[in-house]
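Quick one: examine this chain and its backbone structure tokens and tell me how the chain folds. Here goes:
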Amino acid sequence: MPPPYDIMKRYNVQLLLDVGDHSVLETRELWVAYLEFVVISAIMDETGIANSGYISGIDKKRRLLYTSDSTNWVRRLDEILKISRKLLDKDGTLVVASPQANAKPFPKGFMLESVISNIAIVPGQPFSIDEVESGIYTSYKLTHLEGLRNSCVIEKEEKYRAVAPGRNQLLELRRYLNEIIN
């Protein structure tokens, strides 16, 4: 994996939900979250190498967005969706990382339509975004890193013990991640 400095040079504030606070780019928490994100991505993609080429290859498919704000990440969905539109292709995944300890992965039944309809309204204009654009927003998969950890690792600890160590446990983790991310 490339060193954090190279990642920081390449993405700069694109790693952040709060782009005004550049000092967050130098925090340990961001880089621990980024490492965890890359490991999860490599498991999902069944690749053993997470070099610069791999990271470039997932740029439009899957991204991490970090904030040092510990409030509920779901409250910022409108911002997150707008950033997703700039960073991701259709069907992309955005993983939010923050200090919110009790974060849940995005609820399966949660409807984005109300948030998307608010994003779609252009003040002073009679028309909102078209259905194609709306379809792109609804195609995104959004989740929280801590929520993934809680639901795919901590809450499943007993199930991992019943599986042979090594590759079988990794496949089990991948299956749980796929339930949320894909």
